[in-house]
Amino acid sequence: MDLPSNKRILSAAQPTGEAHIGNYLGAFKQWVALQDAGNDVCAMIADLHAITAPYDAATFPNTTLRMAALLMAVGLDPKKSVVFIQSHVPAHTEAAWLLTTITPVGDLTRMTQYKDKAKKQKTVGAGLLNYPTLMAADILLYQTEIVPVGEDQTQHLEFARTLARKFNRQFGKTFTEPRAFVLEETARIMSLTDPTRKMSKSDLPASRIGLLDDPSAIPRKIRAAVTDSGTAVNPKKLGPALTNLLTIFATFSEKPFRDVAEEYAGLGYAVVKSALADLLVDRLAPIRNRAEELLWDHGELQRILADGAERAATLANKTLVTMRKRMGLLLPQNE
Ligand code: AMP
Ligand code: TRP
Questions:
Q1: Is 117 an active-site residue?
Q2: With a 6 A CB cut-off, is 27 part of the ligand 1 pocket?
Q3: Three-class SS string for the chain?
Q4: 62 Cα to the center of ligand 1, angstroms
Q5: 8-187+298-326, CATH topology level
Q6: Catalytic residue selected from 7, 166, 201, 325
Q7: Does residue 82 contact residue 42 with C-beta atoms inside 8 Å?
Q8: Ligand 2 centre from 148 Cα, in Å?
Q9: What is the strand order of the sheet 146-148 is part of?
Q10: Domain 213-293 has CATH 3.40.50.720
Q11: Domain coordinates in residue numbering, the chain
Q12: CA dihedral angle for residue 226, residue 249, residue 3, residue 318, rounded to 10 degrees
């Protein structure tokens, strides 16, 4: 994998439900690799985006904290990267408002994700419509050069680029134009119960392996996973279910997909499943243990996040003041 280095990177995940191996292989693992390749990574927990969909306010603080612990447990190091909660840095909401004033409503109503989500809700909040503008603010405030995202977010990223160009043209060069970074091989880990659908937080627990799943649940879920017709692995004729299981195997063991498929050629599906379950239990144990350790001490976790928010705010406020000046807003005397 060819990784950039010395770039400003912003990545984010919403604290909705429990993250799974699809999130890990498709997103978090790359963020850690980008951090370790010497980039300046800002890793954000997008709580303000999460509340644009129905959610449970009572459990939300805990869900947010668990997501923060998980990001650190998979290897985001708060000493190297800036790990923070979006709502702890007020510059995001302020910049989003400023950008709203130059956002054409038509561009927002045309967004695929907006149309999909709006269909599923009885009343559509303006927050759901303005979601891409807030996401543009997240990115542009940090002069972000590269944004690692899944396929589903590339339209939002294109929108952020367009908005950056528009602002720069109208008010003078203020923002860096960000680029998307999509890793093709693991962009879509599929459901264990229906390999034609993406593994998702909103699907049944049997369809996914949660990063914090109890180790005893992992072999059970893998054993019950749907397979293709036939009984043994044929690398020349792999169906969607075996392709998915072997993709998970290859990525977790850091081996090429072809090698793993050849290694299991002619062996029964049960053998593959048993080896995959062992591998997952082994690879997920340190993540789970580390997350539990971090969650043991909420005070310490909150302290790390406060430090992240402070560092993020210093970066973000600098851009925000420039935005306000360029837009002709009178700054208060002390700024
Ligand atoms: P979300 O769970 O939608 O907040 O997604 C967080 C990150 O994980 C995003 O970058 C998604 O593109 C990525 N992601 C979510 N589900 C999968 C999946 N099944 N396979 C690969 N990447 C995924
Ligand atoms: N919308 C993104 C998702 O659902 C999360 C997100 C919010 C994001 N702000 C961002 C991703 C900024 C990248 C950059 O996955």
A1: yes
A2: yes
A3: CCCCCCCEEEEEECCCCCCEHHHHHHHHHHHHHHHHCCCEEEEEECHHHHCCCCCCCCCHHHHHHHHHHHHHHCCCCCCCCEEEEHHHCCHHHHHHHHHHCCCCHHHHHCCHHHHHHHHHCCCCCHHHHHHHHHHHHHHHCCCCCEEECCHHHHHHHHHHHHHHHHHHHHHCCCCCCCEEECCCCCCCCECCCCCCCECCCCCCHHHCCECCCCCCHHHHHHHCCCCCCCCECCCCCCCHHHHHHHHHHHHHHCCCHHHHHHHCCCCEHHHHHHHHHHHHHHHHHHHHHHHHHHHHCHHHHHHHHHHHHHHHHHHHHHHHHHHHHHCCCCCCCCC
A4: 20
A5: Rossmann fold (3.40.50)
A6: 201
A7: yes
A8: 9
A9: 82-85, 40-45, 8-13, 146-148, 179-181
A10: no
A11: 8-187+298-326, 213-293
A12: 60
Choose the catalytic residue: 117, 122, 166, 173. Answer: 117
Would residue 23 be called left, alpha or beta, if left means φ above 0 and alpha means ψ between -120 and 50 degrees?
alpha
pLDDT tens digit at each of 335 positions of the chain: 678 999 999 999 999 988 999 999 988 999 999 999 999 999 999 999 999 999 999 999 999 999 999 999 999 999 999 999 999 999 999 999 999 999 999 999 999 999 999 998 889 999 999 999 999 999 999 999 999 988 889 999 999 999 999 999 999 999 999 999 987 666 689 999 999 999 998 899 999 999 999 999 999 999 999 999 999 999 999 999 999 999 999 999 999 999 999 999 999 999 999 999 999 999 999 999 999 999 999 999 999 999 999 999 999 999 999 999 999 999 998 87
198 catalytic residue (yes or no): yes
| Active-site pick, 29, 198, 221, 273 | 198
Distance (angstroms) between ligand 1 centre and the Cα of 174 equals 30
